[in-house]
Give the backbone structure.
Amino acid sequence: MPPSLSASFRRLMAQKEQLATSADGRRHTRVVAILSGRGMLADGTEFDCKTENLSAGGMSILAPVRPAIGQRVVVYLELIGGLEGQVERLTQTGFAMTFHATARKRDKIADQLTWLINRHLLGEEGTRQGERIKPRHVDYRLQVGNRAECDARVIDVSRTGVAVEAPMEPPIGARVTIGSTRGKVARTFPQGFAIEFARPIPLEDFDVDLVL
């Protein structure tokens, strides 16, 4: 690895450790991260929102609702996925919430925040929105539009898309469903084509046991 790139990745790892937990081991470092999302309160009220700042333990969001302190709330954020927690305090423009998350989920949030902060350093590979994995389950039925179907095999998958091999090659932009996951054809390559998901895979679901 070139020295400049090696230094960048050492910096990323140091930032991730800081984001995951602060020196006292209880509070998390917050960073400015503006992400769009949609939330739901315990009574079923749905609302659009944007984050003001975010950490591995909670976030402050802009929202048109005024929930009660301690009320349960679920928020789905672009690039992050679903987050569940409770209202910690109200602000002039929304509210702050703390997450109900396992240590593994908090670590994944810290990974994504590190990527968001440093994507300008990572170049094209960094903008692929995280690692690509080869899941255990690779054989699926692929539906193109509302009619054509065929078998397809996953080459690799990221949180935002999947590369597949299939006996047909849908045109770029075609709406497809692989398994139960919807998306559209983003590009083709000699071995097959890439599908961009309609929604990113939630952080807590992205591992080798992923089923599309």
Summary: Confidence is low (pLDDT under 50) at residues 1-9, 21-26, 120-129. The first helix runs from residue 3 to 20. The helical segments are 3-20, 103-126.
